[in-house]
C-alpha cells in the first residue's frame, strides 16, 4: 500500500496521500489486521505506528485458539512439534497482543505416544521442553500458565452441541464487527443451529462488584447441548414485507416438525422492521408466530443486525436445510430470524 509514497512523504497517488496523512483512514484500515501483522505495519511510518498503538489499545481483551488432536498430533516431524506449529499458525490470526495466557492440553497431545508410555521423569522433562517452546511463541512480557491433563473440555469438540445463540454488543466500534464474524465463523461449519443478533450493550445483575464498562465491546453466547435437543430457524429476508409472506415463513418453520411441548421460541429482528415496515401494522411477525405456535413462549429483541439462516436440526441430528451458507451469508440487516429450540421431553 505504501509503494506510491516517496521518502519525503509526498505522492502523486491520491490513495498513497490518504494513507500517509489521514490517521482516521489509516486506523480503520489497520483495524482489520491481526496483532502480529499490525505490529509489522507499525514500522511503515510514525503515523502508522501511532495508529497501530491506538488500534491495539482498542482491540478485544480476550481471544482464544483451539487446536484439535488431528492438527496437533505430536510426532518426529523434522520441523518440530505439530502442536507448536499449529499454535503458531493460530497466533498469526488473533487480534490482541497477549499479556496473560492460559492454555490447557491433554497429555497425549503434549508429548509423543512413545514418550507418553515412557518413564514419568521422561514425560515430565519432555512436557517442560514443549512448554518452554510454547512460551517462546508469546511476547516476553506475557505471563503464561499451562495445564496438562488426561483430557480437556471444549465447546467445539462437544458432539452433543446442537444450538448456539450469539450476541455481539457495541459492534459499531472499530474492530468489533470483525471479532463477531470470527466468533461466528468458528461455528458456521458445524451442523448446529446458529442464531442471534447485535445489541447496544451488555448488562448483568450479578456484576455489582465488577461492573461492566458501558463502552466495552464483545460477544456473549448461550449454548444448548444434549441428544434430545431439536431446533430450527427461518430467515425472513428484506423482501418479506406483508402478512402473507410472514405466514409463509412461519409455515416453513412449522414444517420442521419440532415438538412444541418444552420448546422456546426466539425472535431476533432488525430495529427497522417495526410497524412502519408493515404499513403501520403492529406485531405482524409475532402474531404470525403465535398463530402457528400458540403454546410456545416467544422471546427476543429488535437489534442492529441479525445472525442466522434457514436451518433445521431434527432428533436424529441430520441437517435438513442449510443452503450451504457461507460466513458472510449469516449476517443480515432488515431481516428477522425466528428460532425454535426444543429442550427434550420433561419425562
From TrEMBL:
CDD domains referenced in this protein's UniProt entry, alphabetically: F-box_FBXO22
Coiled-coil annotation: which residues? none
- Biological process per Gene Ontology, one example term: protein polyubiquitination
Cite the SMART domains for this sequence. FIST_C (SM01204)
One matching Pfam family, short form?
F-box
Please list the residue ranges annotated as the FIST C-domain domain.
176-310
Which InterPro entries does UniProt cross-reference here?
F-box-like_dom_sf (IPR036047), F-box_dom (IPR001810), FIST_C (IPR019494)
Name assigned to this protein = F-box only protein 22 isoform X2
Source organism of the structure: Octodon degus (Degu)
Q: What is the lineage of its organism?
A: Eukaryota, Metazoa, Chordata, Craniata, Vertebrata
Amino acid at each position: 500500500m505504501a509503494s506510491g509514497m516517496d521518502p519525503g512523504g509526498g505522492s502523486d497517488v491520491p490513495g498513497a496521500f490518504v494513507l500517509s496523512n489521514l490517521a482516521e483512514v489509516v486506523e480503520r484500515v489497520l483495524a482489520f489486521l491481526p496483532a502480529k501483522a499490525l505490529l509489522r505495519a507499525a514500522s511503515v511510518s510514525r503515523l502508522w505506528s501511532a495508529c497501530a498503538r491506538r488500534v491495539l489499545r482498542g482491540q478485544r481483551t480476550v481471544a482464544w485458539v483451539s487446536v484439535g488432536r488431528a492438527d496437533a498430533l505430536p510426532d518426529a516431524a523434522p520441523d518440530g512439534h505439530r502442536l507448536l506449529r499449529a499454535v503458531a499458525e493460530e497466533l498469526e490470526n488473533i487480534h490482541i497482543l497477549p499479556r496473560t495466557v492460559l492454555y490447557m492440553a491433554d497429555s497425549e497431545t503434549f508429548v509423543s505416544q512413545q514418550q507418553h508410555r515412557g518413564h514419568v521423569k521422561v514425560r515430565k522433562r519432555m512436557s517442560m521442553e514443549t512448554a518452554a517452546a510454547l512460551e517462546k511463541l508469546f511476547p516476553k512480557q506475557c505471563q503464561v500458565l499451562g495445564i496438562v491433563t488426561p483430557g480437556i473440555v471444549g465447546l467445539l469438540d462437544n458432539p452433543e452441541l446442537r444450538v448456539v445463540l450469539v450476541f455481539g454488543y457495541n459492534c459499531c466500534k472499530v474492530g468489533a464487527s470483525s471479532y463477531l464474524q470470527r466468533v461466528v465463523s468458528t461455528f458456521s461449519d458445524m451442523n448446529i443451529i446458529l442464531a442471534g443478533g447485535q445489541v447496544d450493550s451488555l448488562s448483568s445483575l450479578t456484576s455489582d462488584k465488577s461492573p461492566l464498562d458501558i463502552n466495552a465491546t464483545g460477544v456473549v453466547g448461550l449454548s444448548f447441548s444434549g441428544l434430545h435437543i431439536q431446533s430450527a430457524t427461518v430467515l425472513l429476508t428484506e423482501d418479506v414485507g406483508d402478512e402473507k409472506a410472514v405466514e409463509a415463513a412461519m409455515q416453513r418453520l412449522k414444517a420442521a416438525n419440532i415438538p412444541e411441548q418444552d420448546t422456546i421460541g426466539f425472535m431476533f429482528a432488525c430495529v427497522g422492521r417495526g410497524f412502519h415496515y408493515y404499513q403501520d401494522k403492529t406485531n405482524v411477525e409475532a402474531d404470525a408466530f403465535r398463530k402457528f405456535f400458540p403454546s410456545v413462549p416467544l422471546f427476543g429483541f429488535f437489534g442492529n443486525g441479525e445472525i442466522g439462516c434457514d436451518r433445521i436440526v431434527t432428533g436424529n441430528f441430520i441437517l435438513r436445510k442449510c443452503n450451504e451458507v457461507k460466513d458472510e451469508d449469516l449476517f443480515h440487516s432488515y431481516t428477522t430470524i425466528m428460532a425454535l429450540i426444543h429442550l427434550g421431553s420433561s419425562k
